Amino acid sequence: MTEKNITATVNFYLLGFKNICKYRTVIFIFILASYTTTIIIDSIIIQLVSTRKCFGSPMYFFLKNFLCSEILLVTFIVPNMLRVIWLNGATISIPACIAQSYLYCASASTECYLLAAMAYDRYLAICKPLHYNNMMGKNLQHNLVVFCWVFGFLLTSVTLYLLCQLDFCGPNTINHYFCDLAPIEELACSDTLVIQREILILSVPLIVTPFFSVVMSYIYILIAILGMPSVTGRKKAFLTCSSHLSVVGMFYGTLVIVYMIPSKGQLQSVNKVISVLYTVVTPLFNPFIYSIRNHEIRGAISTLSIKKWLQNKK
């Protein structure tokens, strides 16, 4: 009986962005500044929503959890991304790579569910205003949030288990700046048919179902708004949904573009650039969208800034 001479791969090599030596420092500073700003602004909004009584409505409770998931998502990706950019490519162990892929998918899945929960909250507030307080009670709020977090991390653990079963014994270079699912699959020596089918099946409850829930909620919201007799009432109802709708558009828009574009050949570079929009730029814009369009959050941030300025003057 003959034995195959197979050398197991221990580490992956993340290529990052090729041919950026001239602009490496500029790109590094931009991404670091974007990441730092995202963390700071998200943390300020979370603190305000958690400590001030005026932010006691369900909308802000869901917003707080959504921003927490945003912080997790960018933290799982950006610090190592900065290392890859600065070194113009860097190694990562296979367990660390698989862990990053799982945590990224889990936090993104949780965001999908939280956006659906926020859409359902807006549906109840606009379409069933008289019953809103009774229907969206504390128990339902907490149950929805627990479901979002648990289901997002639990379902993606199936992918984690299957990734851990793969063997890696050939090429070890990933033409990306983080460990996404597709590049990991491409480097596997063992059969990946099971995991490909599993990802396709899980995309229904993790992505399609929450998106369908958001779409249906906004169809009913639009019908309710158009049926309002008052122009002022229609405008107010639309403004309460505009921030969330903008975030939903950015989130699913970049998500679809990233995973609809083939990740092979020359399109890999395009895919990586669009992935930067999804993992860096979109999380940066989201807190600004909520703070700029929401007069309560905008007013609270202004008050907090004035208080800190007065304290520094003393």
Main attributes of the structure:
mainly alpha; 314 residues; globular; 3-stranded mixed sheet; Rhopdopsin 7-helix transmembrane proteins; 3% strand; disordered N terminus; 3 strands; single chain
Structure, explained:
- By secondary structure, this protein is mainly alpha-helical.
- It has a single domain, classed as Rhodopsin 7-helix transmembrane proteins (Rhopdopsin 7-helix transmembrane proteins).
- The protein contains 10 helices and 3 strands.
- It has helices at 24-51, 58-87, 94-127, 132-135, 138-164, 181-186, 193-226, 231-260, 267-293, 295-313, and strands at 11-14, 90-93, 173-174.
- The protein has a 3-stranded mixed sheet.
- Helix 1 (24-51) packs antiparallel against helix 2 (58-87), helix 3 runs parallel beside helix 7 and helix 9 packs across helix 10.
- The longest helix has 34 residues, at 94-127.
Briefly characterize the structure.
The protein has 314 residues and is mainly α. The chain has helices at 24-51, 58-87, 94-127, 132-135, 138-164, 181-186, 193-226, 231-260, 267-293, 295-313; strands spanning 11-14, 90-93, 173-174. The model is unreliable at 1-6 (pLDDT under 50).
**Per DSSP, what share of the residues sits in E-state strands of 2 or more residues?**
under 5%
> Largest sheet at a glance?
3 strands, mixed
Q: What number of structural domains do the residues give?
A: 1
CATH C-level category: Mainly Alpha
Spell the H/E element sequence: EHHEHHHEHHHHH
Secondary-structure-based class equals mainly alpha
Number of helices: 10
Query: How far is the first residue's CA from the last residue's CA?
Result: 83 Å
Average per-residue pLDDT, rounded, comes to 85
State the total count of DSSP E strands: 3
CATH topology: Rhopdopsin 7-helix transmembrane proteins
* Low-confidence segments: 1-6
